[in-house]
């Protein structure tokens, strides 16, 4: 089988020795990045927390649910603030792609952690979209309460912001321990890790890539 030559720009072609030297130089920076990431994780584990006293009521598959109910009896809870406004007909493409990437969360359960999605759209829209995508993650509607506004993932103008929040419970008391918006959710998206290892990266127009590299708008 004969394949056609690639017509887009290519990385420089060098000897194995030159490649190894360049790879070794990058590896030094990669190891420093790993150590910095570990240090950030250590700081994150030492963050203080704030008690949640607002009696939020969400709508779930089995009826009304409190924030404590979302833990499903476990001690920790990770919430993905999934962008899906009340008047939208489908969820945010970026949030959809990230949930598609998750796979199983069974290992989280083994560590006493529950994962759930929360959106402002009414529950029937969320469940219909979940069925369309073939997901099984618990998804709750914050329609009618101020949860998304209080956690700064929805504005008074109706704009939606992606993010993840982490909660810890001590008995029946619930505490907010962590929040990350925007690109802070990327560690939960495995596909980005694969793409970042490739010569052409994510192929998005915000990336610093050499001239001629394939690129397009993020949601283009």
Task: Describe this entry's structure for a reader.
With 220 residues, the protein is an alpha/beta fold. The protein has two domains: 30 residues; 138 residues, Glutaredoxin. It has six helices and eight strands. The strands form two sheets. Strands 1-8-7-4-5-6 form a six-stranded mixed sheet. The chain has a two-stranded antiparallel sheet with strand order 2-3.
What are its keywords?
Glutaredoxin; 220 residues; two-stranded antiparallel ribbon; 29% helix; 6-stranded mixed β-sheet; alpha/beta; 6 helices
Topology:
Elements: H1 16-44, E1 50-51, E2 57-60, E3 63-66, E4 76-81, H2 93-100, H3 106-110, E5 113-119, H4 123-133, E6 139-141, H5 147-150, E7 163-170, E8 173-181, H6 190-196
Low-confidence segments, given as residue ranges, are none
Q: Name the CATH superfamily assignment of the largest domain.
A: Glutaredoxin
Number of helices: 6
Structural domain tally:
2
From the spread of the alpha carbons, the general shape counts as globular
Radius of gyration using CA atoms only: 21 Å
Termini separation: 33 Å
Q: What fraction of residues sit in β-strands?
A: 15-25%
What fold name stands as the CATH topology of the largest domain?
Answer: Glutaredoxin
Architecture per CATH nomenclature, i.e. the level-2 architecture of the largest domain: 3-Layer(aba) Sandwich
Largest sheet: 6 strands, mixed
What is the CATH C-level name of the largest domain?
A: Alpha Beta
Secondary structure category: alpha/beta
Order of helices and strands: HEEEEHHEHEHEEH
């Amino acid at each position: 089988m004969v394949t056609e030559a690639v017509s887009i720009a290519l990385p420089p072609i060098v000897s194995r020795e030159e490649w190894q030297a360049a790879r070794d130089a990058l590896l030094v920076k990669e190891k420093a990045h790993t150590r910095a990431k570990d240090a950030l994780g250590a700081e994150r584990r030492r963050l203080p927390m704030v008690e949640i006293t607002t009696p939020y009521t969400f709508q779930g598959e089995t009826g009304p649910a409190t924030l404590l109910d979302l833990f499903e009896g476990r001690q920790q809870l990770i919430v993905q603030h999934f962008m899906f406004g009340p008047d939208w007909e489908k969820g945010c493409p970026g949030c959809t792609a990230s949930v598609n990437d998750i796979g199983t969360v069974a290992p989280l359960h083994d560590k006493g952690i529950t994962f759930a999605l929360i959106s402002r759209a009414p529950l029937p829209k969320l469940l219909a979209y979940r069925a369309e995508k073939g997901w099984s993650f618990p998804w709750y509607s914050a329609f009618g309460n101020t949860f998304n506004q209080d956690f700064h993932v929805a504005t008074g103008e109706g704009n939606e912001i992606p993010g993840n929040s982490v909660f810890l419970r001590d008995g029946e008391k619930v505490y907010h321990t962590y929040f990350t918006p925007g690109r802070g959710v990327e560690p939960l998206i495995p596909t980005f890790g694969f793409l970042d290892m490739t010569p052409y990266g994510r192929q998005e127009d915000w990336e610093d890539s050499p001239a001629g590299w394939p690129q397009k708008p993020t949601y283009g």
